[in-house]
Request: fold
Amino acid sequence: MSDEQPVIEERENGPFVVKHLTDLRLADGTAAECKPVMALCRCGGSQNKPFCDGSHKTNGFDSTAGDAAAKDGARRYEGAAVTIYYNKLLCSHAGECVRRAAGIFDPKQRPWIQPDNGTVEQAREAAEACPSGALRLSEPGDAATLLAGSDVSITVERNGPYRVSNIPIAAPYWAEGQSERKYVLCRCGKSNNKPFCDGTHLDEGWSDGS
Reply:
């Protein structure tokens, strides 16, 4: 096992190059064999996902970001016992918040986040499960906090992004509240916030073929 810190590097109009990673989890829950250097597909076209097979060279993949800065900003939803901060730009639409705290997070209600419709524990569980870091919490008198684990890993989400925990990446733009402790990387090639996911894969019905 390498003692070197894992790192993710972008290749212009090409893959993510991951170095020194020892924990890569596939969409079916199995652990992938990790090599000292691995190229992960982010154009959406590889026939060997999650690994790159060079498809980006022929499918016109463009790794530049879109208008991310124009859409950035965290909204504040204040409750009696907890305040929830949500940055839509970072949201990958994983739906973990709705599954764990449907009273607090309900897309059919307005506003869709209502902290007083559940407990602080439910809000914390939902924020901790959010893979993108789009959700942060604060309790009275405290600053907004991102809840994240201590594992150093990449998890492939079926028909979705790479879920990354505690691995540095040099990105051209970091959104409000975003952290290297927990973020998601675009795998479909369609995000307007590259290298990060912005939920476009779900809007366009992208499938990884798994």
